[in-house]
């Protein structure tokens, strides 16, 4: 505790001997008169006693009851172990009980100021310990509102009329507070990063669950396997769709259903689906361009039951109906159909122009 007396004067002057003819000077506005009786008990009188009453007193004391001010610094405990608040205090005080001052032998102004400083410290001490270092401002506000604007009477006969309080931290406490804040910020940063990671993991899990559900739903329809492959590697979407567009073993209807499934599964955008839809329904050109590629041969008509197909010019000669045709069919493993009886005329002899027993040889027809 360091206090600075404003003036170095006496607070109490005396004792002065009292008699009927020596009762002291007139009382000044800033003075109080205290007389001691024969048994030594001090008595405070508002003015000089009469000559007859002065016979009861032996000594007179003149007490200064004007206002005084003192400034000092004080270390007040904090709620953080090992560290204190530094307080700058300024008090205005005066003597309010001259008899107690005389009885307590508080004769000098310095002794009165010391009593004021100790009394204020003891008054503030129990309250500052409730606040940690980081609440220095809150502690100062509490002390000012509680003790700053009202008088406080001390047991020694002195009264603190007004008290100004300012709290601050010394270098060690400020460094400790910075370290505490740094640790707190680090903990909050780690907690924030952990919450961010958990949120990202939840979001990824939700997206994965939604994608899996979409794949399961898409797998129930046509093209489900392709939907699964596209979902696994979305970067190959266009390549996969172009490959499906070129495939001829998948019908246009299946391709359209596949596009709908991909849109419902949110694997492609509607605009992309529309683009692929146009490419699917666009017919290929009959004449393809490119080096070494001709117009191609037209497709052959499909064979219908009972239809007569004329032979091509470069086809080998076909065997005539008769035994040669029958033998050729038999050699190829086919069973002869509708065998002709010996008595029935041949198909080529229906008009009776050729005998049945005549065969055509290399030199013409001959008798059988």
From TrEMBL:
Protein name: Uncharacterized protein
Bias (Pro residues): 298-319
Disordered: annotated segments: 287-368
Domain of life assignment: Bacteria
Protein's organism: Streptomyces noursei (Streptomyces albulus)
